[in-house]
Design brief:
Distance between the termini: 14 Å
Order of helices and strands: EHHEEEHEEHEEEEHEHEEHHEEEHHH
Structural class: alpha/beta
Strand content: 15-25%
Number of helices: 11
Shape: globular
Largest sheet: 5 strands, parallel
């Protein structure tokens, strides 16, 4: 019987991928065929890491956004007398932090001692709602700024409800706008003041133009060298190749684009090359997330394939990357090795994709429950002889 959760370990001179093994089969490659080492994340070890991370402090730097769902009951809509259109009668509003705010929420859900938010809010109704939502969840905003020239990014999804169905209409977006020189200088000071207070720094660079400016990236690089005992972990949508001396977590398309390798090919040899190039730039572990296929990790020129966790549809992948980043940071803070942290991040992401129409979070109890469900399912599959299925 196979271990519950496993990955294939391969060195940089690995030739397995060039032997024509299909990508989808690699999660199930038997040791005797792959001639590679497998490691198992046990439940006791998972529990230990989730417990130890609760004593840690994580700072989240990035664009904190407001996600909104406005529900319109179209059965109450009547043709307008002023325009030949039907209005959207809003009957319910749901607001939650998105972007870097969702990363902070996920860290809070994991029970960390302190979650520090570093961002710039606008003095607008969206900023007010967002600040309240974050403070209500216990997120510290002492190092965040509220400035008149900033527009708080917000993404509003109108949900049209009929008699027996619901449909999402075109999204309404607010912002973002570039930081002024004065606002950027104020943010740089806040970042410098906050870093000594954190064990791990999560950088969520998801909005353009956003608060992670070239000057902010340069300062973070300098701080990562000034504080080598602290972990800096980056999730950047468009600039992952511009970070150095930090752990980076791109998805496969972001990794390919950062290395100038296009955006269409996602076969294993290509992904290995992209991950290796980023590893050379950062000198730190690189996690390339691969959706349902899990993640590819390179650390010290060694590749790890961290298999994903299968979930039954329906699923909602919005926010899954935020969950991966937060669980990765929390696990590393709790003493996990990079491969262990990546496995836990995969588990946590598999929890949130089952939470529909919301950027959800994953608690330690939910992560352990997902682990137990995998253990039960995988125990039922017995492979008596080495083979690839």
């Amino acid at each position: 019987m196979r271990p519950l959760i496993e990955y294939i370990l391969a060195r940089s001179d690995l030739d397995l991928f060039e032997k024509g093994v299909p990508w989808r089969f690699l999660n199930y490659m038997d040791t005797s065929i792959a001639d590679r080492r497998k490691l198992t994340l046990t439940r006791d070890r998972l529990t230990e890491i989730l417990h130890r991370c609760k004593a840690k402090r994580v700072a989240v730097i990035g664009d904190f956004c407001l996600d909104a769902y406005w529900y319109a009951d179209m059965t109450k809509s009547e043709l307008s007398r002023e325009t030949p259109r039907f209005p959207l009668p809003i009957v319910k509003e749901v607001y939650s932090p998105g972007g870097a705010g969702n990363v902070a929420l996920n860290l809070t859900a994991l029970g960390l001692r302190t979650v520090l938010g570093i961002t710039v809010f606008g003095l607008d109704w969206r900023g007010e709602l967002l600040r309240k939502a974050l403070l209500d969840q216990g997120i510290c905003l002492d190092f965040s700024l509220s400035l008149p020239g900033k527009v708080t990014p917000a993404y509003i999804k109108p949900m049209l409800q009929g008699y027996a169905s619901i449909q999402e209409d075109s999204r309404l977006d607010f912002g973002p706008v570039p930081l002024s020189k004065e606002d950027e200088e104020a943010l740089l000071k806040s970042i410098g003041d906050c870093i000594p207070e954190a064990d791990v720094i999560a950088i969520a660079d998801q909005v353009t133009p956003g608060v992670i400016t070239p000057n902010v990236r340069a300062m973070l690089t300098e701080l990562s060298r000034r504080y080598p005992e602290k972990l800096f972990v980056v999730d950047s949508r468009k600039n992952v190749g511009d970070f150095s001396n930090m752990i980076v977590k791109p998805n496969e398309l972001e990794a390919l684009k950062a290395c100038g390798m296009g955006s269409n090919s996602a076969d294993i040899p290509t992904m290995r090359q992209a991950a290796a190039r980023l590893h050379e730039r950062t000198s730190k572990p690189v996690f390339v997330t691969l959706g349902e296929n899990g993640a590819l990790l390179i650390e010290d020129s060694i590749f790890y394939l961290l298999p994903g966790v299968a979930v039954e549809p329906p699923v909602d992948i919005v926010g899954a990357g935020d969950t991966f980043l937060s669980a990765l940071c929390a696990s590393l803070a709790g003493g996990a090795s990079p491969w262990e942290a990546g496995m836990i991040a995969n588990l946590a992401s598999s929890v949130t994709v089952k939470k529909l129409n919301t950027t959800g979070t994953a608690s330690p109890e939910e992560i352990l429950a997902r682990y137990d469900s995998i253990r039960s399912e995988w125990k039922a599959e017995v492979w008596d002889e080495p083979h690839v299925r």
